[in-house]
Amino acid sequence: MPESWVKSHSPAHYTPWPLPWFAAIAALVAAALYSRLPGKFIFGPHATVATTFRWLVPGLVVILVAALILIHREELRVHHTIRTLVRRRMAIALIAIINLANVLSVILLVRFIINGGKATGHELVLASINIWWTNILVFALWFWEIDRGGPAARLHHAETDPDFLFPQMTLPELFRTPMSPTFGDYLFVVFTNAAAFSPTDTMPVTPRAKLLMLVEAGVSLLTLLMVASRAVNIL
């Protein structure tokens, strides 16, 4: 753990950072989109298991979001360093749960189409829209959580090396204040990557950032080209 990060989280230097409401809302919206998927595209060997997962995944997300809100409360007597470490691990677990559930839905969707499964155009359009937007939200959360050590590290200026190179970083003389990406910045990066299948104005500069962008673009490509095109043909 970097010494600057530990120092910034000591009682003498620590400044509470506001609850990231946009990220919390994004996680809840992603969970809601998952719960609205047609049953055949939710993991489970039979309908009963699929129904369980339909509510289990959103339930876990709601619990973790509630726990993250609770751990932000200053009344909770926990050391600042421990609080931040626990929050980060909980946030990563939350994102991983949504991401895994969505990837399994993509696999089931592609398998369903390849095997000639019968579904209405409405079901396929609904599934593709939900999966595509869940993919965008979950990777926006990934980028927001990993870049330069996470939101807490960025706020306290104890960042690690950047995972993404924003245009403002290449021309700092044009901006009064240093670049401090918000959740909206990462959401824009993810949306453009999902729509164009490649980076646009912001470049990934670390192997993990490139891998995440690769996976995100791959899910988007499968969803739009295979699923959406089949649905249009049916309609």
Summarize model confidence as the mean pLDDT. Answer: 80
Residue windows where pLDDT falls under 50 for at least 5 positions: 1-14
* Helix-strand topology string: HHHHHHEHHEH
Q: Which structural category fits the helices and strands?
A: mainly alpha
Percent range of helical residues: 55-70%
Q: Helical region count?
A: 9
Keywords:
235 residues; mainly alpha; two-stranded antiparallel ribbon; disordered N terminus
Describe how the helices and strands are arranged:
Elements lengths: L2 H6 L12 H15 L11 H25 L8 H35 L6 H26 L4 H5 L8 E2 L1 H4 L12 H14 L6 E2 L2 H28 L1
Antiparallel strand pairs: 1-2
Describe this structure in words.
The chain has 235 residues and is mostly helical. The protein has one domain. The protein has 9 helices and 2 strands; from the N terminus they run ααααααβααβα. The chain has helices at 3-8, 21-35, 47-71, 80-114, 121-146, 151-155, 167-170, 183-196, 207-234, and strands at residues 164-165, 203-204. The chain has a two-stranded antiparallel ribbon with strand order 1-2. The longest helix has 35 residues, at 80-114. The protein is globular. The N and C termini lie far apart (55 Å).
In summary, what is this structure?
Helix 2 packs antiparallel against helix 3 (47-71) and helix 5 runs antiparallel to helix 9. The protein is globular and about 55 Å long.
